Amino acid sequence: MGSQQAAVMLQAFAVAAFVLPTDTVIRVIGAQGYVASLIAMLLLAAWIVTAIFGYHDPLHTRYPIRGALALMWICTLLSYAAMPFYVPDESQRLGAGRWLMLWAGTSGVVLVAAEHLRSMRDVHRVVRVIVWGGAFSGFIAVFQFWLHWDLKPYLRQLLVGFERNGDYSGFQGRDALVRVTGMANHPIEFGVVAGMLLPLAIWLGLYGRQRSALRRWLPLVLIGMCIPMSVSRSAILASVTSVGVLVVALPVAERARVILFTPVAVVGVFASTPGYLRTMYGLFTAGSTDPSVANRLNNYPRVLAAVQAHPWLGAGGGTDIQTDLTKVLDNQYLKSAIELGLVGVLALILYLVVPMIAMVQVAVKARDPEFRALCAALAGAALAAAVASYTFDSFSFAQFASVHALVVGLCGTCWLHAHRPPSSS
After folding, report:
1. CA atoms of 328 and 125, how far apart (whole Å)
2. Which residues of 31-64 are buried (b: 16+ CB within 10 A; e: fewer)?
3. Residue 403 has pLDDT above 70, yes or no
4. HEC readout, the chain
5. pLDDT at residue 147 in the model
6. Which residue has better confidence, 168 or 404?
């Protein structure tokens, strides 16, 4: 598989993740039967076939991100092997199967992006599609937020043979504001994904000078609007984290432009969304009186009891299935502690943090300002995902998992690009 073919497949995956609803699946496959997931598993099959027939050599293509991915697989498989000893019910067995399919698809995206995208031009093409996918989600959210009209039901009708999985709504209420989801399944997922994409949108705006100003900056505006429309603390944390990492790595002139523009953007948010400042101030200062925070605190004894019952390997990936919303943890680390045990939590932390560390190392040594900024943008996106995973059960949401897999894969290809001899780049 050449770099161009890999880029096309990854672009198709990104389009499916943002344009085709991820809550619409092939029923016989289950929750992982949405279009983006099917493409991701096809990518894994393509990576395996090319390795078997010698089109690339994975044994001599080494990078730290694949090691972190392998550790996640080891913990997942060990936990899956131990699961029968805990007598899981039917829904838990299905959940465990979904978890395996999720990581199969994730692996396909990460490995193909890292090992087959050998041209930086193709990397730019993939990043551009991801950013415009986030902009499309923001465009749909504008209609949801201001006109209370949702395009997703009409898009579901285009998927012949697929069925809706779950009862997700494009609208939720929080105080006097309406929370929308764009093309995601939940406002938190919508806001966190936008926060992860912000630095990549800024990077395209700053360095995509061959395109018009409208095509460079419109995606940033639409993605930026997602943050207030999600009415989510997680979205703000993700945005501040991701953009902060990028700003530190930018040249002085570009850094000044971003810093000077930030107050304008903040004022624009408050002016266009009446009551937003009051609502967010109340959310950040409510403490344990906030229902969502209180729910998290109330679940700590349940988490402790579950971890004590299966401390090392957990009860099996994907098996903590709760129909009672008051028992949903909204914390991927705690959820993984129950499902994968303490060893699995360590593997998850490494999987989330290693891509960020790798990109920081590359950015520090990079001499090209554009490449350095790209690495910093990817580092910011990866760190935002790690931070947000503390505030919601991130890998339970399909669009987050898809975008994060693309970010991790791009971190891998940038790391390999930086360590590849100049003549082979």
Report:
1. 38
2. bbbbbbbbbbbbbbebbeebbeeeebeeeebebb
3. yes
4. CCHHHHHHHHHHHHHHHHHCCCCEECCCCCCCCCHHHHHHHHHHHHHHHHHHCCCCCHHHCCCHHHHHHHHHHHHHHHHHHHHHHHCCCHHHHHHHHHHHHHHHHHHHHHHHHHHHCCCHHHHHHHHHHHHHHHHHHHHHHHHHHHHCCCCHHHHHHHCCCCEECCCCCCEEEECCEEEECCCCCCHHHHHHHHHHHHHHHHHHHHHCCCCCHHHHHHHHHHHHHHHHHHCCHHHHHHHHHHHHHHHHHCCHHHHHHHHHHHHHHHHHHHHHCCCHHHHHHHHHHCHHHCHHHHHHHHCHHHHHHHHHHCCCCCCCCCCCCCCCHHHCCCCHHHHHHHHHHHHHHHHHHHHHHHHHHHHHHHHHHCCCHHHHHHHHHHHHHHHHHHHHCCCCCHHHCHHHHHHHHHHHHHHHHHHHHHHCCHHHC
5. 87
6. 404
Q: How far apart are CA 102 and CA 220, in angstroms?
A: 29
**Tell me: the pLDDT tens digits for 188-245?**
999 999 999 999 999 999 998 888 889 999 999 999 999 988 888 899 999 999 999 9
Structure tokens at 89: 């019910």
Hey, how many other C-beta atoms are within 10 angstroms of the C-beta on 86? 14
Label the pairing between strands 177-180 and 24-25.
Answer: unpaired
| Confidence (pLDDT) at 287 | 65
Q: Which residues pair with 191 in a beta bridge?
A: none
- State the sign of the Cα–Cα–Cα–Cα dihedral 277, 397, 39, 207: positive
Q: Find, among 127, 356, 151, the residue nearest to 219 by Cα.
A: 127
Instruction: Write the pLDDT tens digit of every residue in 84-117.
Output: 888 899 999 999 999 999 999 999 999 999 999 9
> Taking the C-alpha atoms of 223, 227, 230 and 235 in order, what is their torsion angle to the nearest 10 degrees?
120
Residue type, 219: P
Token representation of residue 298: 């109330």
